[in-house]
Amino acid sequence: MAGLIERYRDRLPVDLETPVISLEEGSTPLIPAPALSKILGEERSVFLKFEGLNPTCSFKDRGMTLAVSKAMESECRGVICASTGNTSAAAAAYAARAGVPCYVVLPAGKVAAGKLAQALVHGAKVIPIEGNFDQALQLVVEIAEKEGITLVNSLNPYRIEGQKTVAFEIVDALGAAPNTHFLPVGNAGNITATWRGYRQYHEEGVIHSAPRMFGCQAAGAAPIVHGKPIENPETIATAIRIGNPASWQGATTAIKESEGEISAVSDEQILEAYAHLAAKEGVFCEPASAASVAGLLARHRAGLEICPQGGVVVCTLTGHGLKDPERAIAGLDIPPPVSSDLDSLRQRMGL
Ligand SMILES: *Cc1c(COP(=O)(O)O)cnc(C)c1O
C-alpha cells in the first residue's frame, strides 16, 4: 500500500516537485471492538483505529511524512522537535530516511523506553533536559528560528495536514462518517487534524454529516478541561503529559463545531481501559492511547448520550503498547520456572 501522500495527494499541500519521504505510513486497521460494543448495547458498534500499526508505531508518522517531505523541498539543514517520545521516534525515522540530521529534546526520565530506543537507533541527536515537555517545546521553537533548523512539532502546519488523513481513512473504510469519535488529547494537534479531515470530506460532499468529537485528557494534565495551563502536569500516560497545548484553539473549535466535549479521565480509568483493550479485545496500545476508551466508558457509565441506537463509535488508539514495556508489566507477576517435565507442566497449567 502506498504512503498517505501518494494516496491523498489531491487533498494535501504537495505538488509533483515535492520529494516524498515515506515509510508507507497510514492504512492502519479499523478494528471492530465486540466487547466494547456489547457494553454500549443497542446494536452500537465500536471500532478501534489502531494507529500503533504505523511504521514507528504511532500516528505521528502521518504528520511526519509530510513535514519532512516539505522540509526537503526547501533548503533543510536538519529537523528538530521537543517530544514526549513518539514525535521524536517519528522525526528520527523520517530524517534518517531523508538523510538529514535530527535533534530531539526530551524531558529527562519521562520518556518510555521503546520511544527513546527508536530515536537512538535511527541516529537522532537525543538531548534530555531537566524540565518538562512544555519547557522543551519553548526551547526548540527558539533555537529552530535562530539556527534555521526545521521545527517538526505540530506547530509545523504540515504535521496537522498530514494527520488529517486519519479521518479520510476512517470514512473510506466505513463508507460514511461515524456518529462519534473519541481520542486522547495532549498537545491537541491530533484532535485538530482529525476534525479538519472530517470537515474537508464534508465540504467536498464525501460525507453528509460529521461525527461529534470527544477529546480525553488525563486528569492530572487537563488544561483545556480546566480552562487554564497546568504548570506541573502529571499522569502515567506520558504521551499526553502536557500542561499548555500548542493547538488549544484547534481543540476547542473541534469540540464546538462538532457539538462534542473535552473531558478528563483519571490514571485509574486509563489503566482500566488499557487492560480491557489488551485482555478483552486483543489490542495492545500504550497507556495514553487508552484515554480515548476510558473517556468512552466514563461517558457510558455516567449515562450520557454517546450515539444513537445502531450508531458507530470510533476510538483512536494513538500508539502501540510495546512502546512502554515497563508500564505493561508493572504490577504483573512473571511466574517462576518449573522443572522441565510433563508432570510439573501439567500441574502449573492447572490440569
Ligand atoms: C502525541 C500523542 C498523543 C497526543 O496527541 P496530540 O496531538 O499531542 O494531542 C496521544 N497519544 C500518543 C501515543 C501520542 O504519541
Account of the 3D structure:
- The chain is an alpha/beta fold.
- The chain has a six-stranded mixed beta sheet, with helices on both faces.
- Helix 3 (60-73) packs across helix 7 and helix 7 packs across helix 9.
- It contains 15 helices and ten strands.
- It has helices at 4-7, 34-40, 60-73, 86-98, 113-121, 133-147, 157-163, 165-174, 189-203, 223-226, 248-258, 267-281, 291-301, 325-329, 342-349; strands spanning 30-32, 45-50, 79-82, 102-107, 125-129, 150-151, 180-184, 212-218, 261-265, 312-317.
- Bound molecules: pyridoxal-5'-phosphate.
- Pyridoxal-5'-phosphate binds next to helix 9.
Mean pLDDT: 96
What spatial order of strands do you see in the largest sheet? 1-2-10-7-8-9
Identify low-pLDDT runs. none
Number of distinct beta strands: 10
Approximately what portion of the residues adopt beta-strand conformation? 5-15%
The N- and C-terminal alpha carbons lie at a distance of 46 Å
Ligands bound to this protein structure: pyridoxal-5'-phosphate
**Shape summary:** globular
**Measured on Cα atoms, how large is the radius of gyration?**
20 Å
Which structural class best describes the helix and strand composition? Answer: alpha/beta
Order of helices and strands: HEHEHEHEHEHEHHEHEHHEHHEHH
Biggest sheet descriptor? 6 strands, mixed
Estimate the helix proportion, in percent: 40-55%
Count of separate DSSP helical elements: 15
